[in-house]
Hints:
Number of strands: 10
Shape: elongated
Keywords: Signal
Number of domains: 2
CATH topology of the largest domain: Immunoglobulin-like
Signal peptide: 1-25
Amino acid sequence: xxxxxxxxxxxxxxxxxxxxxxxxxxxxxxxxxxxxxxxxxxxxxxxxxxxxxxxxxxxxxxxxxxxxxxxxxxxxxxxxxxxxxxxxxxxxxxxxxxxxxxxxxxxxxxxxxxxxxxxxxxxxxxxxxxxxxxxxxxxxxxxxxxxxx
Length: 149
């Protein structure tokens, strides 16, 4: 083969690869990965929930502030709901102190509630969030970090 033919074949190959690679990549969706420390973990993809969170803050007077939120995808998620339970660790097990819930025919909702807690115990919030699209429901349960009061 001549040098000129080799150059043409090489350039043709490069052009074809540049055209085909983006099309191939567009069809592949990578599984979301979140690092914990230096260890990557695979996080399941949710169809109607973009983000969900819960948090607990206890001030020096024993006022526990519970926050929770769910963000669905605008234009996809029809309805969202939150059910948050404030729990106390007592006698070797978690028991319910109080609970809060709300729902909305929207793609997002937030709750911000307070409750009085007793000194000398650990507390956490276990929150169940639900997102709905055309009657198809997906649910996720998330737990806040523990707070000692």
